Amino acid sequence: MPFVLPEIPELRPSRLAMPLVNQLIVNQKRLNLEVSEKNGVHIIDCGVNALGGWEAGVLFAEICMGGLGRVDVRWANFKGFQWPSVQVVTDHPLRACMLSQFAGWSVHARNFSALGSGPGRAVANREKLFAEFGCADPSDNAIICLESEKLPSDEAIQDMLRKCQCKPANLFILVAPTSSLVGSIQIAARTLETGLYKLKTLTYDITAVRTGWGICPLPPVTPDAMQALGRTNDAIRYGASVYFNVNDEDGYLQSIIKQVPTSSSPEYGHLFATVIDQYNDFYDIDPLFFSPAEIWLTNLKSGRCFHAGAVRPELLQVSFGMEV
């Protein structure tokens, strides 16, 4: 029988994320953003024409998580490699990461395409995940976070309005390219999402995951979109560490944990730029490819801790274009 998340109004991602969206709007000048309206819909440019910044990136990432996680930036040591990092924690990993932050909405229109994440996914309620966990969001407001090099076209906006079934004034669209300051932070903040996605791909019951804590090196910004895609993926695959508290059986955790980190992939040791050349399209890549560098699982039933994987600072330095 499928697990159905209980409907808890206080945990609705649109309700929790809206104050964060208002912070972006009210402080748009200080945060180096550009806010406009298109056909009555709010468009928040976080890096297409606007510069954006670290602070806006943190807010963008927390909005992606539906206000159910905390994100901050700090310096960290990755096996002797001192580098800025993005840390994320949540006490609601399934709701925050899979039902809000996960980029499960592919927005397509003529001359426009983007990956969509954020609270608006649960409002639209069109993905299998929401049918699986029975947790849509009936909110009047819809907040959609787009990873795109362009602002959405009129056709794309109308499509999002139709699917969210909300008034134009209640739709908020945030846009940040991968090759931007905000984009770099919000992708590095997807460590827990990546770990949960990998566990789910391995058919693990992610409802057993109670809390999550992750850290990832911050990919340096580059104007080259493909290079930015490579750096953000390499940062997670070779630099991200995730820690989950779970409620399960020790034997099962021992049997699955070594399949989670990047070291389990046939492409282990290769940078993303090399791997993508083997495929016709980004979406052709094996889903098992997307993994954190290392994972820790603490079993709340037994108190035992399990670990697999390792960060690879030497590969990060190459990917980041460091002069060493």
TrEMBL record:
<dbReference type="GO" id="GO:0005737">
    <property type="term" value="C:cytoplasm"/>
</dbReference>
<dbReference type="Pfam" id="PF02289">
    <property type="entry name" value="MCH"/>
</dbReference>
<comment type="pathway">
    <text>One-carbon metabolism; formaldehyde degradation; formate from formaldehyde (H(4)MPT route): step 3/5.</text>
</comment>
<protein>
    <recommendedName>
        <fullName>Methenyltetrahydromethanopterin cyclohydrolase</fullName>
        <ecNumber>3.5.4.27</ecNumber>
    </recommendedName>
</protein>
<comment type="function">
    <text>Catalyzes the hydrolysis of methenyl-H(4)MPT(+) to 5-formyl-H(4)MPT.</text>
</comment>
<keyword id="KW-0378">Hydrolase</keyword>
<dbReference type="InterPro" id="IPR003209">
    <property type="entry name" value="METHMP_CycHdrlase"/>
</dbReference>
<dbReference type="GO" id="GO:0018759">
    <property type="term" value="F:methenyltetrahydromethanopterin cyclohydrolase activity"/>
</dbReference>
<dbReference type="GO" id="GO:0046294">
    <property type="term" value="P:formaldehyde catabolic process"/>
</dbReference>
<dbReference type="GO" id="GO:0006730">
    <property type="term" value="P:one-carbon metabolic process"/>
</dbReference>
<comment type="similarity">
    <text>Belongs to the MCH family.</text>
</comment>
<keyword id="KW-0963">Cytoplasm</keyword>
<keyword id="KW-0554">One-carbon metabolism</keyword>
